[in-house]
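INPUT
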Amino acid sequence: MTRAFLVLSAVAALFAAAACSKPAAAPAAPAPAHPNLSGSWLPVGGRGGGTMPPANEIPLTPWAAAKLKAERPAQGENQDFPNTTDPSLKYADPNGYPRISLHPMRFKLIQTDDYVYQLWEYNQNWRQIALNVPQDPDPPITWYGNAVGKWEGDTLVVDSIGYKDSTWLDARGLPHTQDLHLTERIHRMGENLAFDITFEDPGAFTKPWTAHLIFKPSPDGSMTENIYTISDELRFRERFLNQKVNIPIRR
Amino acid sequence: MRRSNRWDLGFGIRVLGFAVLMSTSAFAHHGAASIYDMGKETTIKATVTEFVWTNPHVELGISTSGGATTELLLELGSPPNIRNRGWTSRVVKAGDVVTVTFHPGLRGAKIGIVVKMITADGKELHA
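OUTPUT
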């Protein structure tokens, strides 16, 4: 009985000592599997700062060259705002991609294990990039396309198709067809974020070409609502340009 | 002298960069050159007749005769962009007297695009 008591006491003492000893250090958090792209980003404008190349450096098909020449942009060279053919003004259409990222307002990237979400402040538009899933060979045709992505080292590679052909690729009026295929390589470049976008579209371009867009960090926090409607556009035209315009139908 | 030239060059580059940035921010909706005389600036003291916080551009109506009817309609940037420069929807209201600098409309149009405004209490805001 006494021996049993002594054994039990010794075992209890061992447990007590173990319980009182310094706890083992918590395992170190694993290094993030991929770079953090999250945050708010603002386009860096100007040549060398990440804009679309000049038109004469883009391999346009004769159809695309003629269409670009016929357009009347609202800004830049040969601008004709009162008579513009820009669908984002004439019909207040969504900008489409990648034009919306060139708009001088920020976007926010939200990164999860399954998706990367890109939220543009302008018009509260957004797109989702589904990760590690195959591209749909016949996706619905949409303003912002069907995007899938996967990580290749430190670079997020995004494949997208299914773009509505009525959008302009930029504010100059760069056209595309419904066969537009974008391959984006998104990666950190110092404190900035780089989107290297390769455009393939046999109807609009004679060969693939790449634009390098740079975005700088912008103070994070609440996004500002900034929704622009066809009514806003018509009001502006009536008040500032004395234009009486009925709501147009896209043809 | 050499130092002064370097400073001038650096200052010029910064001014140019700022101008490019401002022009990009202000004219995301439309370029200004096809409706405003960007080579000319006009500064007047006037009474605010309306201040409308709207897209695509915030609107400032003014009267030089002190009346309540808009005689000159001025545009600013988009709401988020000018908010980043200190403007709010209540920074001025109808009846306030302001000093405003703007590029006037082409061909005598009674419109303009604001460069800056000084409120009655001396606050200077750039568009």
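end of record. The longest helix of chain B spans residues 2-26.
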